[in-house]
Amino acid sequence: MRLYDTIFEYGEAEYIVEKSRFIAHAMPVSSFDEAKAFTAEIKAEYRDATHNVPAIVCGPGQEYQWASDDGEPSGTSGMPVLKLIASEGLTNLAVVVTRYFGGIKLGTGGLARAYTAAARLGIEAAGICEVMESRLLVYRFDYSYLTKLQNLAGEGRFEISDPEYSDAVKAGLKCFEEDADEIIGLMNNLTNGQAVLIEERKDLRKIKKSR
Q: Which residues of 5-28 are buried (b: 16+ CB within 10 A; e: fewer)?
């Protein structure tokens, strides 16, 4: 079941207008606190910038929205970025647009357009995805089955996550909720019942969307 749309990974992009540099940083997050921590991290890293404008949207229904103009004229930066995120139907992400002033004023309309353009490029760099309800099946199995399992994962039926290698392989198989029983049967057949299912829990899976 689809839960919401967000960005696939961290994305960064630069937009230049009238000698001002706008650097967009877009990050998927799981909570508002995580988003705030990311914005603080970017602000610290780019402390020499003229402005670091953040916008955050969180919650399955975009319930939590927050933005700041960070010293730019009111309504010219944070809010346009926030509106862009909301209009794209995205949530659980933070965008920070860093600006290095180039000496030429853009005006209120020019600022709004520049911040929006930069944010859009950052989001595009991160990639849009659907977050789906999924099931994580954690198995322990012999190394002799690893290559064949990797080949099956390459067909897109499931993802292999967080593999650990010791005397045997321990790895999670992430699949759609409705496919869990089929994947359990597949593992039993592949390993002749030798694979041990040591954990099973609900999880999330990102599916990248073509734009």
A: bbbbeebebebebeebbbbbbbbb
pLDDT for the residue numbered 211: 56
pTM: 0.80
Burial readout 105-131 (b: 16 or more C-beta within 10 A, e: otherwise):
ebeeeebbebbbbbbbbbbebbbbbeb
Give Cα 155 distance to the centre of its chain. Answer: 23
**pLDDT greater than 80 at residue 45:** yes
Give dist(CA 2, CA 24) in Å, integer.
27
**Mean pLDDT in residue range 37-56:** 97
pLDDT tens digits for range 73-82 = 999 999 999 9
**How far apart are alpha carbons 181 and 10 in whole angstroms?**
33
Q: Average pLDDT of 88-99? A: 97
Radius of gyration (Cα) for the chain, nearest Å?
Answer: 21
φ, ψ of residue 75 to 5 degrees: the values are 80, 5
Report the distance separating Cα 76 and Cα 145, nearest Å. 57
Strands 159-165 and 196-208: unpaired
DSSP assignment of 109-138 equals HHHHHHHHHHHHHHHHHH-EEEEEEEEEEE
pLDDT tens digit string along 163-182?
999 999 999 999 988 899 99
H-type helices in the chain, by residue range? Answer: 32-45, 78-87, 107-126, 146-154, 180-190
Domains and CATH numbers, the chain: 2-126 (3.30.230.30), 133-208 (3.30.70.240)
